[in-house]
Every structure is written in structure tokens, then in C-alpha cells.
Amino acid sequence: MMKHLYIIAAGLFLFAGCMKKLEVNEPVFDVKVEKPTWRAGEEVKFRLAGNPDLISFYSGEPLHDYAFAAGRIVETAGLDLSFNTSVEFGKQADQLSVMASVDFNGGTRFEDITAATWTDITSRFKLAGSATYTPSGKADITDLKTAGKPLYLAFRYRVKNPSVYGTGNVWRVQNFLLTAQTSIGAIQLGSMLNGGFRIFDQMPDIAPSRSTISATTLQLIAPALADSTRTVDTECWIVTKGMETGDLDYGPDRPASVKGYADPAVTETVYVYPRPGKYRAVFTAFNANIAGSKEMVREVEIEIVP
């Protein structure tokens, strides 16, 4: 029994000695620049002294700012929507409408569409009068957002009784773009690629929609009605996913890596600021092992001129 106690005691003594050897030293590190003012597009040269285990760099630009290393909440101040449309082949007027809802349940049935409250915002845009694509203009739709609720946008396509009103038109939509204006600039919320578009067909059994969705184009096409159903009025909707239009949680701002554990000492690094302004460039240096870590922060004020 005593023998085992001696072995345990010896092991603890050795472990304590190893931990003492693994004690983390304070990083020795400093940063200097040749001059405080640089031109946009010019390589800013940072001189580095010391050899810590890890070095990271925050440029001070939006999403790369040390002041937000713990997290960033971006307030949405405004919403802009734009797209292009074209129309051809048919004879019916006022077929296409642009709609918005904050209480659509995100369901898959046409009944889910009709159960929601939709606001007609067509008048805010310019729609095409020919097959030539027409820019809608950029419309401010900030008034549509509601705190805590996603915003759904839709293109509603109505085909009236073709025996009375003639053939339905083919409408096409391209370049859909929903943009949030924020404190860090314009942020894309929805586009042709990530808009999450879905087709909702009012009468899929007797008058199935021929509308389609691709990566570049939304096509709204009248059903190919048989003679027995040519008096039917129909609707087809193409609806986006729910867009989060409130404050955006971007998580922590991210640095760029300058040096890793296995890298040799770094004495210089460069960075190009594309836009004029005043920036707080921050370098963080770490020494770390299984016993813990220690950090040193160095910052440099940089002014970028045109």
C-alpha cells in the first residue's frame, strides 16, 4: 500500500514540475508603421517585433474590427427592392402584381397564400410593356418590415377568362435584389440565387401552371387550358422565403491570421485598404500551451486618403 502511495506522490510531483515548465510566458510583441497616412490601394507596411506563437490582424474595417471581436449586431435602417421584368405574347392587362406579407405562415398550399394578409406594392415599381427587360427602379419598402416577423415578397400572376380577355401574357422577372441599408453599408438579404422562390398554383388539377423558376429567371406563364376549361380564372404566385429584416446578428468580427504555431518569426506584413477613412488596425499576439494562454494587443491608427 505504501509503495503505491509513494508512486502516486512521485507522479504528482513530476506532474507539478512539468506544469511549472509549461508555464505560459507573456508575449513579447510590438507593431510600428513607417508613416501614419497612406493612399487607398497602397500597401500599408506593418513592422512586427517579437516572436509570439500566434499573431492575428484586425484591419478596422466593417466585420474586421477588434471593437466587435465579442460580437456585432447590425441595425437595419432601410430596405430597397429592385428587379427587371419583360412581357410578351399575350393580350391581357394588369396580370402581374408585386405583393408583400409579414403573416404568411410559410406553408406549401395555395390556401396558405389566401389565408395571409398581403400588401400590393406594384405601384412602387415600373413594369415592362414589351419583351425588352425593363428595370423596376429601386423602391424603398422599409415601411413593410415588422419587428420579429420575416418579410415575404411575391409576384402574383392572374389569368382571366381567356375566352373573354384573350391569351395570357408571359411575364419574366430577373435581377431580383432585396438590400438592407445598415450602419456598415448595404447588405444583400435576397437575390435570384438565394431568394428561396416557390411556385403556388391555384388550380393544379384542372389548370396547372406552366410557370418556372431558374437561377436567373422567374417565368409566369398561363395554363394550357383545354376547351372545357377555357372560362376559368386562375392565379399563380411565386413567393420568396421569409426575409429577416430586423437587426442582424453577425457574430464576432473576424481577424486575418498573420502567424501560426509552426510558422517562423514574422517581421513584416502588408495590407491594402481600398477605401479612404481612418482605421484602428489591431494585432493580437498569443503564447499558449496546455497550461493556458496569454494575450498581448497592439494597435496602430491608420489614415487612408484618396
The portion of residues forming beta strands comes to 35-45%
Number of distinct helices: 3
Gross geometry: elongated
Helix content: under 10%
Round the mean pLDDT to the nearest integer and report it.
90
Task: Summarize the helix and strand pattern as letters.
Answer: HEEEEEEEHEEEEHEEEEEEEEEEE
What are the segments in which pLDDT stays under 50 over at least 5 consecutive residues? Answer: 1-20
Query: What is the first-to-last residue Cα distance?
Result: 79 Å
Structural class: mainly beta
How many strand segments? 22
What integer value in Å does the Rg equal? 30 Å
Largest sheet: 7 strands, antiparallel
Fold and architecture overview:
This protein has 3 helices and 22 strands. The protein has helices at residues 2-21, 110-115, 162-165, and strands at 30-33, 37-39, 43-49, 54-58, 72-74, 76-88, 96-101, 119-120, 134-135, 139-140, 152-159, 170-182, 185-191, 198-201, 212-213, 218-220, 234-239, 248-251, 256-259, 268-272, 277-289, 292-305. It has 306 residues and is mostly beta strands.
Describe the structure in brief.
The protein has helices at 2-21, 110-115, 162-165, and strands spanning 30-33, 37-39, 43-49, 54-58, 72-74, 76-88, 96-101, 119-120, 134-135, 139-140, 152-159, 170-182, 185-191, 198-201, 212-213, 218-220, 234-239, 248-251, 256-259, 268-272, 277-289, 292-305. Strands 6, 9, 10, 12, 13, 15 and 16 form a seven-stranded antiparallel beta sheet that branches. Strands 2-22-21-4-19 form a five-stranded mixed beta sheet, with no helix packed on it.
